[in-house]
Amino acid sequence: MMKTISVLGSTGSIGTQALEIIKERGFRACALAAASNIDLLEKQAREYKPKIVCIFNKSKYPKLKENLSGTGIRVTAGEEGLCEAAAFPEADIVLNSVVGIAGLEPVLEAINAGKDIALANKESLAAGGELVMKAAANKGVNIYPVDSEHSAIFQCLQGNKKKSVRRIILTASGGPFYGKTAKELQNVTAKDALKHPNWDMGAKITIDSATMMNKGLEFIEAIWLFSLKPEQIEVVIHRQSIVHSAVEFVDGATIAQLGVPSMKLPIQYAFTYPERLKCVENVSLTRIGNLTFDKPDREVFVCLGAAEKAIKRGGLYPAFVNCVNEYAVNLFLQDKLKFLQIGELVLGASEHNSPEINDMKITTGNIKKIDAMAKLFASGFFNTPL
Fold this sequence. Notes:
The chain is of the alpha/beta class. The protein is built from 17 helices and eleven strands. The protein has helices at residues 13-25, 38-48, 61-67, 78-86, 104-112, 122-139, 148-156, 190-193, 203-211, 213-226, 264-272, 285-288, 303-313, 317-333, 339-351, 355-359, 364-381, and strands spanning 4-8, 28-34, 52-55, 74-77, 93-96, 116-119, 143-145, 165-172, 233-237, 243-249, 254-258. The strands form two sheets. It has a seven-stranded parallel sheet, with helices on both faces. It has a four-stranded mixed sheet with strand order 9-8-10-11, with helices on one face. α5 links the parallel β5 and β6 (116-119). The longest helix is centred in the middle third of the chain and has 18 residues, at 122-139.
């Protein structure tokens, strides 16, 4: 098996693991893109020898271009460069692990170019799920989920008909603050929130896990990926992160996918589907001993309910809530917002009644307008300049 892959978000946690798989499997990386880490991007470019690299932060473009001069690698920057890397002609599949709403435009460009997608950017579906899924259907493009939970659902559905699905069980680790009261979370810091018990992830997704917004975004993502109704999804806390999710069928059978907490398996499966190749260690149930399941605390972790409320409202409200959350997380990481204020802000966004949002059609242009509106909403909610 030979694959040529464009890796968007190559310097992040998903991107670096994807490149390890590419190296281990003898695949080829034809395009690499990163947000701002030019040192690692340069190192990756020299090792994997792509045809094109993109640095999203345009201020770092001159330095990267100078550093890679003489290599024959084309250096690009900004959204235009990211979209060029996404639609690069030689790519068989595009891994989209860009963080945040910035991943929407490149995934649409890749789809329009007829590329299959390995999707690790949940925000693109949270904000523009209708656009992405319609474009993929029109182009006959496959979307392979890379999130461990959605990959698990995808795997559990193999060989089964959609009409046989009663509901899905979306598992969540509960993050670093599972079991904590609101009082106990009053003064937690970004350093505290970044200590995930099971997973090694980037800062944004780790904070989202701590607030349970990550599961809220995955709730929305699952609706689009698997054509589900909100009432067909149950979120369950599973601290061990061994059962990555499960599908319950109409006959009463429940099929779950189990595995060690490693993103390499879902990344590789997206690259090699339907083939399974050696990847990670097998699960030892006797060594693990116990698998536990619990209901999420929706009173403390209000982001989950806010995301559910947004998708039920429909239209551009999921995009609005998603974008407000991005700004809230950014403020928290800069120590401009307290941890619990993230939830207050996101919940406020889900309940916000805007005639303008109500009247907007779902287009990429309007999603960009929503992003601008979200920034104003976030900065004005607690009077905290961004």
